[in-house]
Amino acid sequence: xxxxxxxxxxxxxxxxxxxxxxxxxxxxxxxxxxxxxxxxxxxxxxxxxxxxxxxxxxxxxxxxxxxxxxxxxxxxxxxxxxxxxxxxxxxxxxxxxxxxxxxxxxxxxxxxxxxxxxxxxxxxxxxxxxxxxxxxxxxxxxxxxxxxxxxxxxxxxxxxxxxxxxxxxxxxxxxxxxxxxxxxxxxxxxxxxxxxxxxxxxxxxxxxxxxxxxxxxxxxxxxxxxxxxxxxxxxxxxxxxxxxxxxxxxxxxxxxxxxxxxxxxxxxxxxxxxxxxxxxxxxxxxxxxxxxxxxxxxxxxxxxxxxxxxxxxxxxxxxxxxxxxxxxxxxxxxxxxxxxxxxxxxxxxxxxxxxxxxxxxxxxxxxxxxxxxxxxxxxxxxxxxxxxxxxxxxxxxxxxxxxxxxxxxxxxxxxxxxxxxxxxxxxxxxxxxxxxxxxxxxxxxxxxxxxxxxxxxxxxx
Amino acid sequence: xxxxxxxxxxxxxxxxxxxxxxxxxxxxxxxxxxxxxxxxxxxxxxxxxxxxxxxxxxxxxxxxxxxxxxxxxxxxxxxxxxxxxxxxxxxxxxxxxxxxxxxxxxxxxxxxxxxxxxxxxxxxxxxxxxxxxxxxxxxxxxxxxxxxxxxxxxxxxxxxxxxxxxxxxxxxxxxxxxxxxxxxxxxxxxxxxxxxxxxxxxxxxxxxxxxxxxxxxxxxxxxxxxxxxxxxxxxxxxxxxxxxxxxxxxxxxxxxxxxxxxxxxxxxxxxxxxxxxxxxxxxxxxxxxxxxxxxxxxxxxxxxxxxxxxxxxxxxxxxxxxxxxxxxxxxxxxxxxxxxxxxxxxxxxxxxxxxxxxxxxxxxxxxxxxxxxxxxxxxxxxxxxxxxxxxxxxxxxxxxxxxxxxxxxxxxxxxxxxxxxxxxxxxxxxxxxxxxxxxxxxxxxxxxxxxxxxxxxxxxxxxxxxxxxxxxxxxxxxxxxxxxxxxxxxxxxxxxxxxxxxxxxxxxxxxxxxxxxxxxxxxxxxxxxxxxxxxxxxxxxxxxxxxxxxxxxxxxxxxxxxxxxxxxxxxxxxxxxxxxxxxxxxxxxxxxxxxxxxxxxxxxxxxxxxxxxxxxxxxxxxxxxxxxxxxxxxxxxxxxxxxxxxxxxxxxxxxxxxxxxxxxxxxx
Lengths: 461, 668
Hints:
The complex is a heterodimer of chains A (461) and B (668). Chain A is α/β, with parallel strands linked by helices and 461 residues long.
């Protein structure tokens, strides 16, 4: 049966029933604060049961306190039904074929002013309606693989994505875009780097930081940059394509294993850590490589799909006074791999030593990364580091903690032979460990310094 | 009646004559000549949206300080954004959206770290609403006798001009309904909303518009009236009323730009057109008057076109690229523009001859309707168009003939010449055709920008109600009944009651608007409660203070509280209140000076009544010596003696009392 009181519960629902007013009904409401007229809108599930939401004639929404209501009458009814209008995505000969795989993040959307809903646009036709410029960049096709929030992406989705990518490459696609929420975008980028190796075409992950309903959203520009990179870039790697600066200027192409979300809300949140991005991208200037060395686009279809993942892997963020029972509990619960994000060059406190020893003896693989994010785990510098290595912890060079976590899961999905695990972990697949840390791989300028302020005013748009 | 070439083939068309003839034909009268009858004749109808900044420490949705302003070049960083329209309900871009997108504007925000954080530039979601602002806005809503909502829902209202970096304004309705009691009628209210203020524009040239973000995000309320004002004077009265009401709380900002009005105007058969950002209510009458007649003129154009063109849907214009040199055009402006790298295009507007110079506003014709849009939509700086009907820089007859033959135009057609960067020409042509087609319909829906001469400019297409949707970043805010009741118990007195009170206190009427504008009634009451005559205090503020305010720069420490303290001092020292007039300029200039020093600086000396009266006999005698001719006229004598004693007496004694005593002495 149709729910005519969408979202209303408890006392608010009782009031609607009492006066026989439905959601989408145009109502006159008498209250002891005065008269209100408008269309009753559905109520958000988590909101209280003391108010009725009304869209008044001027387009605004207001809430009516049910305890002030003295009378209510439905004087009209109009139920809105919505369908996103589709315009056929035009086929242009000579433009590259690009596939957009959807995971659930919203890249483009349409507003429904009546409900206030933001309806995601996804099919090529819908996307063409929202971002018509796409048709000048590529011939786009889309497939919705799943509909999950970024934070709910996990091994199952990584594997399914890898397999789907493999199929697309086999079928001759020129580039792939993956639409993804931004929170765990870099985790997925790392997973795909390990699971899809030797790709002949670019694989671009893209999202947006500011919702696509706003005119100033970064979504459209990110999508255009991603589509351009997927279709036209010579860089055939798994990359993240997101805003370079916070201005609408250009995007960065980040290597999937070295990229990290560094701000909770900024548009320019994604940064390559410990290295430079691969390239910048804009429709105006095309792809401008920053790094000389990268995997080039190829005509062949020789991609390796390795969809493996051991789920009993974890990441432990060390803090002073951490108790050994944390490690013990992980071991007792069957964890097979632990990534530690240690302090400084890769340290944890002494009381944990026995627990570490116990864990490695039980065959748990433990790797050390640094919570400073920048720099290498250098465990020879202090005795403590040497002690830890003697107890079986392996320094993971300059692998980012999250990348190391994804990689260990992927490695343990294939083997649990300690030597092989160590070899695979420390043999970089695509930049997760770099031999050298370039001087410009660490640039966090501090505001307030005159020359920095000067630079910001002149160049950082 | 519109002149046409056919009627006077021998003489060159005179655009000025046509302008005057059409002005007369529509029955235009100037604002000073216009009577209520004129407004009834054209069906003047108008309403207001009054924006008022609230006096809070911080902004509405972030913790940046409110009310600190930067110069245009005082910034630390710039951010660039482009606004993309989002699809509307029908899957189409709405008018404004499309127009703004056509302009392909690059929006630059100048950011000063002192007044702007990552919220304003939309790199951080909003923080919970500023409760101080919400409370002030609720108090004003209650004062407007509105129905207060049970739950505040923050709504996003789209703006694509870039004035808000998100592309939408966060706004919420607090009350609906309500009314204002003007002198002779009531004006209904539609709603009151709380919202964040927008950026201030630094410049808008070509495809680059620059804003600064200091004002952005400051709390603002918008009071919207029904379109029930039937004359420009009623409109002003309503504007003043709302302004005074807002100020009566003492919790709103004053000064340049703190209160701004949008007015919507229509004439009979016209369209609701909004003039935005009128910063003083005294400009409302002229602006609304001119807008109403502009619409009346556009309706006349519609009528004229209907008589010429039977099927408007088949109307199209023709255009052709022009080479100024090979054509040997005389028009210097066009030549200059070509030399600057612009492209020239001639356009034939079939059957539009005489329309271009048709009166629309004082000093403006239909050409301006096109020219304004070329600037805004196609981003071509003015002057961007000319024709043989141009009022300022007309094409010569030879030029017009050359272009007409190039376009194979007939005598009924209008010929215009436009110029601009090559990339903007397609938009320019579309814009011209669009505006001409609109002329068949009458008055386009648009918002306009007010000019100081009382006319207005096209600003953008009027957006519809279909640009609101909930702010998913904010939770609804419930307003408990007990909270609303508490606020209701603490409201300032109604403005119409204030007018009555002022009249009852016999305070002169010419001071009323000043007193209400400055919210001075509470000050008058406070001083009157000390025992000073209210009529004196009101006049003192409405005349003396107003006069000084106009003459002297305001010291940052001066507040009206200082005036209250001054009267308290006079009372304590048992000095006469007339001394306040001498003290005021000093405390206005030096509000931190103590009152005893103020007395010294005005050379005040305490005198008893006997002290003051002592020289009176001597003075009377002295006058007899120096003014032999007027001996015996007692009035002259009293006046002269008063003049001699006035300064010493002020503050020591009531001057009327002194005069009485001197009169007694003189008549002895």
